[in-house]
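Researcher: Let's do a round of design. I'm pasting the structure tokens now; please hold your answer until I've finished.
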């Protein structure tokens, strides 16, 4: 069933606490420290976990399992931030609804080996996979939309490719040859794509039928040139029946003229074709539906059939995007290009349609205060927001999230920015519940402690995730236990009462790949300890929305 359950893969670390608070639901003993890469360092300081992961990158299908893979490449043009990730995920949803097995790969052309050390202000949240991989947030969209479990190898970066090629060169694998971008870098990219696409991600045996590849950035970026060349070679080697290129572009409307302009897309397609790739479909982003004459002009100048020009205009929620593609017969065009019409079924999206329409028809809402460090970019907490959305829909409510900068709640803010301070506290006090997500560093910690104290003293439902959970521990130790200097070793290395400590394997000098991440099992050395009892209590926690909130009509 798609309804509610499919998309609830937003954040396994968030989902279980939310389910206990937002909806009476059983708890699994399996804790997934996912989608909290920035707060994961702090969360892992407090838990002693046992590694229980499987390295799927070592999977190699037998000869009987190997089959001809079909590739769908999604590229972007004109500007970044058009929604290539949602488009790629939606394409996967429609193909999966046709009875095909789908996997996904995200290519990020930056030199970082992974997203673990990148600021959330630049790229949004870091999505953490079951195998501990710290990846781009688009892989979170893939998992939520497609209900799959991806691996860290499903996120390809320039740093990973260069690192693997240099390691081979140092081992002498190239037998003294001059190592060059072509063929060595491009071959490494092709080999990576072909090997990762064969890894099953849906819990079934054997590789998927279709691999959806999203190329990050925009066509023409110097960083993506090796990937463009590798994908051009891949399209030639696998054959045209096994490769479909969908180009996502922008159709702007100038305010003065009021006309849908196709020239940016024409230039973008021309640049793509100059690099050796010709799009089979165009996915045009616009505020309003495309006019017929706009489609005709795009078809004429971009050499794409009018039937293959898809319009992804603004919709009430992103769950409508797969329905938009279905209604425009995008699946038929893709299946025809991939020669899969004979084995595919008509897309069955009844449950998905019901889910999208259910959200549109909700009238009551609940106000949730999100007190964080990175509220300037809401994508910094994308999976937390998605988890709240899914939980609230299960309770027939729309979430109204009020973003509060933690530093605005601090006493110093009352003197430096009194208006922001007053507004932050007014927003906090008007909320039905409070959520503090994760983060690194001590900025805003005092404001978070004040928010946690307010929630405890006023019996306001409170959910602390990673750093937010530690904040609750520190506040309780100070206010209730009388340990005035109780703190985390991360914030105060000299505190006499370290209620939160570093995990022994955590590095204090290196930040990349030094934290405990991924899907793990918690092993209690003492079965009747307080922590073990808390898991039982979570089973009995009533819904904090239905019991504590006061639904209000949007009218």
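Researcher: That's everything. Go ahead.
Model: Designed sequence:
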């Amino acid at each position: 069933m798609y309804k509610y359950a499919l998309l609830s893969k937003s954040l396994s670390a968030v989902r279980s606490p939310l389910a206990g608070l937002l909806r009476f639901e059983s708890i699994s003993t399996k804790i997934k420290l996912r989608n909290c890469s920035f707060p994961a360092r702090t969360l892992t300081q407090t838990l002693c976990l046992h590694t229980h992961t499987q390295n799927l990158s070592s999977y190699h299908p037998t000869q009987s399992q190997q089959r001809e893979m079909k590739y769908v490449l999604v590229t972007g043009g004109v500007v970044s931030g058009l929604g290539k990730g949602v488009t790629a995920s939606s394409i996967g949803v429609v193909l999966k609804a046709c009875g095909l097995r789908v996997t996904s790969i995200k290519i990020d052309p930056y030199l970082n080996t992974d997203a673990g050390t990148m600021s959330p202000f630049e790229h949004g949240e870091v999505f953490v996979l079951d195998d501990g991989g710290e990846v781009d947030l688009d892989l979170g969209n893939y998992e939520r939309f497609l209900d799959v479990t991806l691996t860290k190898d499903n996120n390809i970066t320039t740093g990973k490719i260069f690192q693997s090629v240099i390691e081979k060169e140092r081992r002498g694998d190239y037998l003294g040859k001059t190592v060059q971008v072509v063929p060595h870098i491009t071959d490494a990219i092709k080999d990576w794509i072909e090997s990762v696409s064969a890894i099953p991600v849906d819990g079934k045996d054997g590789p998927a039928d279709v691999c959806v590849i999203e190329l990050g950035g925009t066509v023409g970026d110097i960083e993506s040139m090796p990937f463009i060349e590798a994908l051009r070679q891949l399209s030639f080697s696998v054959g045209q029946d096994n490769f479909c290129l969908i180009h996502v572009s922008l159709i702007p409307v100038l305010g003065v003229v009021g006309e849908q302009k196709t020239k940016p897309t024409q230039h973008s397609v021309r640049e793509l074709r100059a690099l050796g790739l010709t799009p089979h479909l165009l996915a045009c982003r616009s505020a309003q539906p495309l006019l017929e004459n706009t489609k005709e002009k795009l078809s004429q100048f971009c050499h794409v059939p009018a039937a293959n020009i898809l319009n992804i205009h603004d919709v009430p929620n992103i769950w409508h995007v797969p329905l938009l593609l279905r209604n425009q017969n995008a699946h038929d065009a893709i299946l025809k290009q991939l020669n899969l019409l004979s084995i595919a079924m008509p897309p069955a999206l009844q449950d998905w349609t019901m889910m999208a329409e259910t959200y549109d028809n909700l009238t009551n809402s609940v106000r949730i205060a999100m007190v964080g460090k990175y509220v300037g970019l809401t994508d910094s907490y994308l999976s937390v927001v998605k988890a709240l959305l899914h939980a609230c829909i299960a309770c027939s409510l729309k979430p109204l999230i009020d973003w509060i900068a933690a530093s605005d709640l601090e006493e110093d803010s009352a003197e430096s920015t009194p208006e922001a301070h007053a507004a932050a506290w007014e927003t906090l006090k008007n909320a039905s519940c409070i959520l503090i997500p994760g983060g690194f560093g001590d900025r805003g910690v005092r404001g978070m402690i004040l928010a946690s104290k307010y929630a405890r003293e006023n019996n306001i439902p409170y959910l602390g995730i990673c750093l937010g959970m530690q904040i609750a521990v520190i506040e309780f130790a100070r206010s209730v236990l009388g340990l005035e200097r109780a703190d985390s070793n991360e914030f105060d290395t000299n505190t006499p009462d370290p209620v939160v400590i570093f995990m022994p394997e955590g590095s204090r000098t290196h930040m990349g790949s030094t934290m405990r991440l991924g899907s793990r099992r918690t092993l209690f050395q003492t079965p009747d300890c307080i922590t073990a009892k808390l898991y039982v209590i979570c089973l009995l926690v009533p819904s904090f929305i239905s019991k504590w909130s006061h639904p209000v009509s949007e009218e």
